[in-house]
Amino acid sequence: MRFRTSLAAALGALALVVTLPTSANAATGQFAFTYNRDGKTIEATLHDPKARECIDLDEVADPSTTPAHSPRNRTNSIATVFTDLECEGESFPLKAHSGHAGEGLKFRSVLFNQ
């Protein structure tokens, strides 16, 4: 009987330890943004993005393209958008769950604080 209780406790602890790093390394939710390509307006979304790592937006990484705009932060983390790649240039934070901005906010990279 003791063996089963000890085994159950050990398995429960292992399951908890295995799930913690995943949630600590990602913001949960969606970050949406808009960009223009060939005269078309396109919406893109990052799902459960990595946290504490600069994310360059592939869609606007080429300097000859116009930057992304109209961000909508629906993650559980503060999202800070940057005007340049590699999270450089001017920055603007968007609060967790409901942070957003209009077409006037131009950016090429984002960092999630979670």
Summarize the structure.
The chain has 114 residues and is of the alpha+beta class.
Topology (SSEs and partners):
Layout: H1 2-24, E1 29-37, E2 40-47, E3 55-56, E4 69-75, E5 79-84, E6 88-94, E7 99-100, E8 109-112
Antiparallel strand pairs: 1-2, 1-4, 3-8, 4-7, 5-6, 5-8
Question: How would you describe this structure to a colleague?
Answer:
This protein is an alpha+beta fold and 114 residues long. Helix content is 20%, strand content 39%. The strands form two sheets. The chain has a four-stranded antiparallel β-sheet, with no helix packed on it. A four-stranded antiparallel β-sheet has the order 3-8-5-6, with no helix packed on it. Strand 1 and strand 2 form a beta hairpin. It is globular, with a radius of gyration of 19 Å.
